[in-house]
What does this fold into?
Amino acid sequence: MSDFEVEPSLKDIITHESLKWIFVGGKGGVGKTTTSSSVSIQLALNNPTKNYLLISTDPAHNLSDAFDQKFGKDARLVEGLTNLSCMEIDPSSSLEEFTSNNSMGMDQSDPLNGMMSEITGSIPGIDEAFSFMEVLKHIKNQKNDDSSVIKYDTIIFDTAPTGHTLRFLQLPSTLEKLLGKFNEISGRLGPLMNMMGGDQKNEMFSKLADIKAQVTEVNKQFQDPELTTFICVCISEFLSLYETERLIQDLTKYNMDVNSIVVNQLLFAGDDDECKRCQSRWKMQSKYLEQMDELYEDYHLVKMPLLGNEIRGVDNLKIFSRFLIDPYDPKKQKDVVFSLTDH
Amino acid sequence: MQNSTLLFWISLLTIVSNILSITGHSKFEQFVFRTYTKATQSSKYAQYKKLKDEQISINRERSLLSAQDNYAKWTKLNRKFDQLSEKLAAIESELNMNKVKVESTIKLALKFTTVVPITLMKVWYSRTSLFYIPQGVFPWFMNYFVINFPFMTKGSVGIFFWCFCLNRVFWCLYDILKFFFIDEKVEKPTKLNVDADSTTVSTKKTE
It folds into this structure.
């Protein structure tokens, strides 16, 4: 089977011309943000003519820490790059924007209104919903011919550590069903609602129908392997692998394309290594790595080294992200481990 | 239809429907369901059993492995197990739907063969006299008002009244027979023992 070996790098993804959505996800603490930032940087460096956007859907944002730069709810260019922007979606401000846009004549200073927005802001899954609305906005912008709005060729999602990612992906189909039912009901009760509510209801229904069309479009795009892919990030330990396996099974059920797994924090401690602890841990890690090689034959299994320092700042990320494309060689590139610049 | 035939059929149907209500519709339905499924659905059940056995053997194999030491093999067994669970769930839902369908059909069929003919006959032959009681058997007001209850001529018994009498006799006989031959089991009353020291309440069977 050596003539059809899947190469252990993300070159496929970086050079893939038609990809529009890239999700990076995995259980907590495995290096999702580092990986998603690295993927974005490599994409930006390899395709200087295209625009990229990295969105964090994690309520505990850390893109700002990763890049050593303050980001907000509006996309901001990364210092040092011309075609990569980052966005950290803040649910409370998105909520305010949302309610002010759709106030429907409600009194803004009404205390009841404030309570409603507080309650809405604490609904589990509200972060995913707002990230999703960003997605919808972006799709609308793409169809927009207005040149003042920046269009992004690919959007990379740095997802939240827990199962929220799956809930986020489930949103399109759930919303579709919800909106479908709503449309049905409104169609039947239409004349009745006209008598009661008047024009406001009509406006709401037409907006909902609009959203439904967008949601269906998003659903279609997320299930197209030419447009969307998911990169699983894990470490070489039992629980992380088990979670990755479950994540992959769930993603396959959603028909989302998964073909790459990034294994972080590998020690590559050879027999000549002085640290006995590193050697013993590396033994445990290689045991699982072998099992993964057998289990995920058809996947790009990218093995990333554990470096001596935190990977923060664009320069360090550039050094680290190289290994996503050219696999790390522990014998030749041992010096990299201690070569990270302090910021 | 000739009066005698009508009499025969209505009596038969009434008695049959009463017997059915004694034995319980559900028992009859289940009996029919079981024979029907044995005849037609046995292949599906066989498939279900086969998959279930496979799943149990995979589970056994999996529990013998250590997940940490044989991660790849364990995960592959996991995947097979999940696939089988999905298939089993699909077959189960199919079988359940089938069961529901068959049971509702049986209920409908029962209704059609008992209740509907009786009602139809009652409506269609409401004015037909089944038979006549000779004068002198009952007091005059019975002949005038009671026996010929709905709209009959004096002294004749119609279908409505006949059904009524049949039902009453049937249930009276049933009660008598039940009283003599069937002993319903009555449970001994249990005494609630409220413990003064603890907060628990235990039940103690009376001697």
